[in-house]
Amino acid sequence: MKSIHTDKAPKAIGPYVQGNIVNGLLFASGQVPLSPETGEVIGSTIEEQTEQVLKNIAAILKEVGSDFNQVVKTTCFLKNMNDFAAFNEVYAGAFKTQLPARSAVEVARLPKDVLIEIEIIASVNE
């Protein structure tokens, strides 16, 4: 197992890593819309926050030589399922040619009271 860290994505705010590579798969921890530089929440709308989460995920993918086309599964946690359509519009923009399997659920609360968290599993070339 190899743990992943990049300064281009927010550092872990608890006892976990940004991701682990096991048997050619990246299991990335859930990303919330934090600035990698300041640790502050970016955006107040679901669209703005989803864009930041996707930027953070892109940075982790880049660190391991992967991209959104290699994402095989996402789990998306939304604070309010009424935001689903707006979230989906931004989310769809990240996946140009290959769509991952996905789960999307509404949750009562997320870290720092953000509106969205996304975790991924992606293939990598070791």
TrEMBL record:
PROSITE patterns, A to Z: UPF0076
InterPro entries the record matches: RidA (IPR006056), RidA_CS (IPR019897), RutC-like_sf (IPR035959), YjgF/YER057c/UK114 (IPR006175)
Entry-linked SUPFAM superfamilies: YjgF-like (SSF55298)
Pfam families membership: Ribonuc_L-PSP
A single GO cellular-component term on record: cytosol
One MF term in the entry's GO annotations: deaminase activity
Family, similarity comment: Belongs to the RutC family.
Name of the protein in its database record: RidA family protein
Organism annotation: Enterococcus plantarum
